[in-house]
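Lecture 7 notes: from sequence to structure.
We start with the chain below.
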Amino acid sequence: MSIPMKKHSPWLIVLMIAPGASLVTSVAWQGNQAFAMGDEPADVEVVEDESVPLSVAPLDHVEYPEHRPDWVEPSVTVDDQATTIVVVSGPTDSLDESLKEMVLIRRAALETFITEVTGDADAVTIYRLSDEEIDRELVTRRYEGEVSQGGSTKYEHAVEIRLDNNRREEILASLDNIEVRDRLSAIGVLTVGGLVTLMGSSALLGVVLRRSNKPDLETESRE
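Predicted C-alpha cells for the same chain:
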C-alpha cells in the first residue's frame, strides 16, 4: 500500500533548503501537522507599525510665502516680439549671497541666448553688457524674498529679462564685428610675418654684400 504524501507549502520547502534553518523548519513542520489534524493555530500577536511623524522638516523641503509672485519661476518664453527669461537664485543663507548668485545666473542665461541667436560662441566676447546696462536696459521685473528650507530661513532673488527684436538684431550684427576682427587678425599675422621675412632677408643680404666686398678690399690693400 502506498502511503499518500502530504503537500507542504512553498515556504516550508524554502526554509528546509535554507542553511541553519533546522529550528524554524521544525516549528513550521509542527504547525503544518497541527493544521492537518484540525487543531486551531495559537493566537499570534500582531504588532502594528506605528510610524512616528517627523518633528523636523527634511533639509531639501522648501516652503514659499503666500505673497510670492507667480512669475518667479525659472522659465524662457519666446513670441513674435521678444524673448523673456526668468532667472531665480537661492535658497541661500543671506540676501547678499543670493544677489550675487542671481547676477551670475543672469549673465550665464544672457550669454546662452547670444550663442543661440548667433550660432557662434565667440559672439559673447564681442557683444558684452555690464551688470548696470543689464539692470537698466533688460530687466523688467525684480523680486527678493524669504523662503523656509528645512525649518530655516533662506533668501532668494529673481529677475525677468526681456530681449526684444531690436536687441536680437544688435546681437546678430556682432557677427560682422567678429568677421572684421578675424580679418584684422589675419592681416596682422601676415604683416608681422612679412616684416620678419623682410628683416631676415635684409640681414642675409648684408652678410652677402660684406663677403663680396671683402676680396676687393684685400686686393686694393695689396696694390
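Points to note: The beta strands are 62-63, 75-78, 82-88, 139-149, 152-164. The helical segments are 10-17, 22-36, 95-118, 123-126, 131-137, 165-222.
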